[in-house]
Amino acid sequence: MVFLQKMKGGGQSPPRVSLVEVFWSWVGSFIGIAAVALIHYSFLDEKGLVMLIGSFGASAVLIYGAVRSPLAQPRNLLGGHILSAFIGVTAFLWFGGQPWLAAALAVATSIAAMHLTKTLHPPGGATALIAVIGGDGIHNLGYLYVLMPAALGATVMLLVALVINNIPKTRKYPEFWI
Got the DSSP string for 118-174? Predict the structure, then answer.
């Protein structure tokens, strides 16, 4: 019964954000994703390389929409994606013949590693999973996946966040680096 009682909640829903905050979140996410997508479609897609992955959409929510969250800080953004990409590629290379096992190991190990390194970034779990389920285009990258798209894409989004999130007086980013 205590177990079920925990599921009742009891906390208070956070307040609605201002329209100014919504505007800057929109601008940041638009420019951040546009920059990564432009690099992908202008330079890399025709060469069979990848820069745009789904987990960057979730990163955009954090680094442009929840700028004060510990999970949105540069250490978490970069460390979470890079570490998780490495773990995801390794899981695929070692256990790719059993994709269900490789997927579970990639995500669970990424979460543990991010916790241990203080780089927890929820989209990192998706980055690890994409390394396993991403198809031939992703698999053919091997460990290059760690550098591109993971590290390079996250860096482009971080650079945009550093500029856009510091334009309005009501925002400050980052809260911490290390």
Answer: T---THHHHHHHHHHHS-HHHHTTTTHHIIIIIIHHHHHHHHHHHHHTTSSTT----
Number of CB atoms found within 10 A of residue 147's CB: 13
Burial of 123 (0-12, 13-18, 19+ CB in 10 A): buried
d(CA 52, CA 33): 8
Regions of the chain with pLDDT less than 70: none
Question: Is the pTM of the predicted complex or chain greater than 0.70?
Answer: yes
Q: How far apart are CA 148 and CA 171, in angstroms?
A: 29
Q: What pLDDT, in 10s, does the model give residues 3-32?
A: 888 788 888 888 899 999 999 999 999 999
Domain range list for the chain: 18-164
